[in-house]
Amino acid sequence: MQVASTPKRPPAPAPAAARSKHPSDRAGVDLCAAIPGLRAVLKWRPLQFWLMWANLVCFAVFINAGLFGSPVGSHNIMIVFVWILWWFLLIALLVPFLSRFWCTMCPLPAFGEWLQRLRLIGVWPGSGPAKHRTRSLGLSRAWPRALQNIWLQNGGFLGLAVCSALLVTRPIVSTVVLGGMIVLALGLALVYRQRAFCMYLCPVSGFLGLYSMTSTVAVRVKDRALCRGHKEKECLLGCAAGYGCPWFQYVGSMERNNYCGMCFECFKTCPHDNVTLYLRPFCSETGIKGVDEAFKAFIMVALALVYSVTLLGPWGVVKDWANASESGHWGGFALYALAVVGLCLVLFPALHLGAVALGRRLGGGPAVRLKAAFVGFAYTWVPLGLLAWIAFSVPLLMVNGAYILSALSDPMGRGADFFGTATVAWHPILPEWVPLLQAPLLLVGLFYALSKSLQVSRQLFGPPARAVPAVLPVWGLATAVTAVFMFFFAG
Amino acid sequence: MTGAAADVEPAPGGGRHTLFAALGVAAGVALGAALGLVAFDQTEPPRDRHIVVRARQYAYDPPVIRVNRGDRLFLKLVALDVMHGFFLEGHDLDVEIAPQQSTFKVRHPSRPDDWTEQEEVVVIADTPGKFRFRCSHTCGSLHPFMSGELIVEPNRVLHAGLGACGGLFVGSVAVARRRSRSASR
Ligand code: SF4
Ligand code: SF4
Ligand code: SF4
Ligand SMILES: [Cu+2]
After folding, report:
1. Is residue A295 within 8 Å of A154, Cβ to Cβ?
2. What pTM, to 2 d.p., does this model score?
3. Total domain count, chain B
């Protein structure tokens, strides 16, 4: 297997200030130094296997319930655990605080990865020199260059989003989609190298990567100079202790969380124990690279708006359209799909472009390329989108949390009662407090959006006399979008 | 946390600047919220309202009931297709509505087993704010998302929230502009 020659994402030019300062030079608290035993745990080879295994067992239960359980979503563990519990934990806790820790334990790529390695835990040692230190089953092709971006993920996520009213209410639809992802990941693992599915196809991956930029933890090296001088590069090429980065990252110069799947292989492979886990402030990374990532940011904010209308809103017509397979309003569904895609891919990006172009003029900056400003300022929507999604997800748990108890005792919705909680009646927890929680969450999102977009503007436009005027239109747009969310949530 | 206008590199005497920025932005948020609260606190005098709410898969008609603080609502609830529920947040009210019936079963979730058959239910809108009513009787695929809204004006969370958004914006602009002027001097 030729890990070393695996092409990485084409490196986009980093903003000047980002280049001049290595984030790892001010990376925060070294958790492996602060927490005794943490490094040993992360270096422990079976860790990832057991985490994946536990989730795979749960997943088997969900799939079983999806296939043979009650078709009523709120009585089926597939719907209740995946779309209420998992979703809430993911967006509100895992991503903001633990980056892509979900990807450490995600069961979807499990079979593919185990088959590639022909091992559950150990390393399949290679025989040859540098580039063949570990082996891999399958064709080990490189992912096509033209697709080395997250456009496929954007498309897949948007496609699923349009069908979300089906996906999150019909156990069988969730089963087919999630089961299909396992099969696809397995197939791709046999053709392409390592985690190609995760990097380029998984629909969840796009927003996990984008929003993990905000996360309070990060995998980084302690000393970059050590890496520069270290020719063996086990973190990239693998060795007897572990595989080269399955996510095609070179941790020695990694500055962003986006594509680090937190598999912790580099903790195991680095002979200098140079890799560690840092604790750092929320929203420490601000560098968006590429139009594909910028569009991911737009899509996520726009979809939070869409769901606030279709799922949380009171309007029956929209629900009929989104739910066409039952209501039969296929014409309405077409209109709805068009509106959703149009909002995500045309209207929202156009508003952003307008604000950025105006800001570029105010900042007096033909020196700053429009595309660089467009992509850079897209970070505004990362904290705002994340907090809007958290605000959106709060009522999911508070209102429908009781279903978790009943689904635990009766996973199939077929009358079992394992823990005596099967008949717990639906009862929302303090639902009248929901807007009171959502409003401050939105304000926190707006605060970070303003603060971080000014930081981006300083990197693009330089001195405050230019950077401040340049950011104002984006600030205005962010404030307006927050106000729209405020209307949906509290008004 | 630093102020929205915090610099990439702290300016000389940065600690004081950051504190100043944070205070400025916080003052903007507080002022904005207060302004929102005060500006929209007037409502009309209370009155009685008679409202028929029709429930169907998966919405209510009217979807939004907008009233003023102190209003008395006389609700008649009708189900157009299958059995639905009407759980009104913050008002200890839950109703079971059978299709094609002129009466419905009412209970107070604080006393869960006390059902009474009624033709009309009275809600006193004495707490301002947004209260959703949700279907509490599994009625089909989108049942968990079947809801409507009772808005009791003045809706203070909304007013304060919008005011705070505006205040955050204005406060940040003020701090940032001041900073950029002092930096260019
Ligand atoms: S990228 Fe997707 S499939 Fe891969 S580990 Fe993460 S969530 Fe799972
Ligand atoms: S193996 Fe360790 S020291 Fe060498 S390049 Fe990788 S992280 Fe740096
Ligand atoms: S090996 Fe790669 S994906 Fe795994 S933790 Fe290290 S950098 Fe992240
Ligand atoms: Cu219903």
Report:
1. yes
2. 0.92
3. 1
